[in-house]
TrEMBL record:
Keywords from the named record: Membrane, Transmembrane, Transmembrane helix
Top-rank taxon, per record: Bacteria
InterPro entries: YibE_F
Species of the source: Candidatus Ornithomonoglobus merdipullorum
UniProt keyword Magnesium present: no
Keyword check for Zinc-finger: no
Transmembrane regions: 12-31, 133-151, 158-178, 184-202, 209-231, 258-286, 307-334, 354-374
Protein name: YibE/F family protein
High-level lineage: Bacteria, Bacillati, Bacillota, Clostridia, Candidatus Ornithomonoglobus
Any matching Pfam family: YibE_F
């Protein structure tokens, strides 16, 4: 009997997720089809890992007076290409080091270099950066190991959900936006599908999952609506974002629509925190309903709100502090230049950060009553149906 129950739970969790993932894969294949663009200069650039074989000369000196000990100058190197068409070849490279672009290397260090091929077939290497792939990979493995070790099966499912989310952003959201699919409805639809897939993967196809997904989608939609309204009133949109000029130069010819990208950013950035709150509220009301069938819809809702209030402050701070952290350098420069408050508040970049953080936080706050109301009503109705 236990085997049958586990099998049923497995099917309820995996079958809907498999259907969703297959649908997303087909959409990704359609979005990833060749577009027939002509080759550009960038397509003749190849980034490959390399190892410093010899430091022929080192003319760099530490500047302790102005740049906190950064070594400035240049190095003449011999490097060995470690992968790609030119694997094993040894090439000369001049490494120029300034205060900002500063890749200070020694023999044996791993770096990433640019190989540029000229029209006559010749090629040369230039310094790009340190090879940080191994460090980043180890960090990802550590994160996955800790998540699975502490979370067990739930942790493994959460990791799978994270992979699905990142894959949807890279292979579906971004290609779709570049191809000119209307940004707002497309992002809302994709966010809803991702939320449903992740929640089903965690808890199976159940009433708790349905209520948390409904609350999550409603909360994210509330955040997007807030950002859209404020953007209309401000007015401010995707054309005011820092990367707008580059997107105008290189993206619009492919079909990219820039105006709605600000709201899309709010949708994506608030999804994780909103999903967390929605699942917490739905799970709490589910446990209350399981412990006592006598609780009314109003009592379940009140209990959900009480639990949600404890999470509101910390989760709202999460988004605001995240956006503040990402804008820390800009805020430092604002104080260094003693920018007046009137100018600061009306700066595009500051206004965008404020809109994104406040809209996302409002989405979290509204998720609590929306999820509590949906969970209380649906689960009480389900309980009444089971008792009849």
């Amino acid at each position: 009997m236990v085997f049958i129950k586990d099998k049923k739970g497995f099917l309820l969790r995996c079958v809907p997720c498999a259907v969703i993932v297959l649908g997303l894969i087909f959409l990704g294949l359609w979005l990833g089809r060749p577009t027939g663009e002509v080759a550009t200069a960038a397509s003749r650039l190849v980034y490959v890992p390399a190892r410093v074989e010899t430091v022929i000369s080192d003319n760099a000196e530490a500047d302790n007076e102005h740049y906190e000990g950064q070594r400035l100058g240049d190095q003449e190197l011999e490097i060995r290409i470690l992968s790609g068409e030119h694997k094993g070849e040894i090439l000369p490279l001049t490494n120029y080091m300034g205060a900002l672009f500063n890749v200070d290397v020694r023999e044996g260090d791993r770096i990433v270099v640019r190989l540029q091929t000229e029209d006559d077939g010749s090629y040369y290497a230039s310094m790009y950066n340190y090879d940080r792939g191994m460090v980043v990979g180890l960090m990802l493995l550590l994160f996955a190991a800790v998540l699975i070790a502490l979370g067990g099966k739930k942790g493994a499912r959460a990791l799978a959900g994270l992979v699905i989310t990142l894959a949807c952003i890279w292979f579906l959201l971004i290609p779709g936006l570049i191809r000119g699919i209307p940004a707002l409805p497309y992002t809302v639809l994709l966010v809803a599908v991702v939320a449903a897939a992740c929640l089903i993967l965690l808890n199976g196809f159940s009433a708790k999952t349905f209520c948390s997904a409904a609350g999550c989608i409603a909360g994210v939609a509330a955040a997007a609506l807030t950002a859209w309204i404020v953007g209309k009133l401000a007015p401010i949109d995707g054309f005011n974002m820092e990367e707008a000029e580059d997107m105008l130069l290189h993206g619009t010819e492919l079909g990219l629509r820039i105006r709605g990208l600000l709201v899309c950013g709010v949708l994506v950035s608030s999804l994780g925190a909103v999903m967390d709150v929605a699942m917490s509220i739905a799970s709490a009301i589910w446990e209350l309903r399981e412990s006592s069938d006598r609780l009314t819809v109003k009592e379940l809702f009140r209990s959900g709100m009480q639990i949600g209030r404890d999470a509101m402050g910390t989760m709202a701070n999460t988004l605001i502090l995240a956006f503040a952290g990402s804008s820390l350098n800009m805020l430092i420069m604002a104080q260094i230049y003693d920018i007046p408050l009137m100018q600061l508040v009306n700066t595009d970049s500051i206004c965008i950060e404020v809109i994104q953080s406040i809209a996302g936080s409002l989405g979290i706050l509204l998720t609590v009553p929306l999820t509590a109301a949906a969970s209380a009503r649906y689960m009480k109705r389900k309980s009444s149906a089971e008792n009849t």
